[in-house]
Amino acid sequence: MSPHGLGGTVRLGGRVLLRDAALRLAPGWTCLLGPSGAGKSTLLRLLAGLEVSARLEGWREVPERIGWMAQRDLLQERLSLSANVQLMARLRGQAPDPARAAELLASVGLAGRDEARPAELSGGERQRVALARALFDEAPLVLLDEPFSALDPARRAAMQTLAHTALRGRQVLMVTHDPAEALRLGDRIYLLRDQRLEPLPPLAPPHPRPMGDTELALAAAALLARLSEAA
Ligand SMILES: Nc1ncnc2c1ncn2[C@@H]1O[C@H](COP(=O)(O)OP(=O)(O)OP(=O)(O)O)[C@@H](O)[C@H]1O
């Protein structure tokens, strides 16, 4: 099987966003860090085949089915939370499975809210519904664009662990601004900056590292300092 990922040069509106890059995916978590505007979301959209403005001059190898959690939650306001969780699978022709949707909603802390509408939720709750939708879908490649950014620290750690367990064995590519999150979860870490995609050393397993892990705290502080230097 050829490796999944993409490589080459990415151009957007007459400028180079990424030069001679190679993003290689494998089962487990690949985390993508980088300053705002560097092109992380564009890269995710290119992988998903959803990018309309940027052009990739190079290669792209992805499985037929890709799961996707965008930066905006993209919840359908007129649908119930249960229907939102099942939406992508339903669009693909899968049979409804409200029991599984309810289980996933409960796992993200929204037990019994199946028939609620997105407008009744806080920003963090909406993000958790979007996460449940990404977990409902059983795609071999799952792209997550800042999936935990709206959550409080305790909920964020719990959702990281939940997602890591639920997506075990699959290829996950996550964009994050949080070095500790990348180090806690990442089997591979890339930094996208100044048109370059640079592999960074991940922490050794186990992933996710426990919260309060000293090695994680030290590595996150060092990585934050490194990211801040060039900012
Ligand atoms: N349709 C477009 N046409 C031209 N430029 C665009 C378009 N969409 C995004 N850009 C620019 O492309 C660059 C990369 O945007 P992108 O959203 O991929 O960055 P990012 O690294 O994900 O940022 P953030 O961390 O803030 O989400 C930015 O400079 C942005 O202004």
Characterization of the model:
- The protein has a domain at 66-138.
- The chain is globular and about 45 Å long.
- It has seven helices and nine strands, in the order βββαββαααβαβαββα.
- Helix 2 packs parallel to helix 4 (123-136), helix 3 (98-107) crosses helix 4 and helix 6 (179-185) crosses helix 7.
- Helix 5 (153-166) links the parallel strand 6 (141-145) and strand 7.
- Helices cover 35% and strands 25% of the residues.
- With 231 residues, the protein is α/β, with parallel strands linked by helices.
- Bound molecules: adenosine-5'-triphosphate.
- Adenosine-5'-triphosphate (ATP) binds at residues 12-13, 34, 36-42, 53.
Largest sheet report: 6 strands, mixed
- How much of the polypeptide forms β-strand, as a percent range? 25-35%
Termini separation comes to 39 Å
Going across the major beta sheet, what is the strand order? 5-6-7-3-8-9
How confident is the prediction overall: mean pLDDT?
93
How many strands in all? 9
Looking at the structure, what is the overall shape? globular
Alpha-beta classification: alpha/beta
| Global Rg | 18 Å
Low-confidence stretches: none
H-E order: EEEHEEHHHEHEHEEH
Number of helices: 7
Bound ligands, named by name, code or SMILES: adenosine-5'-triphosphate
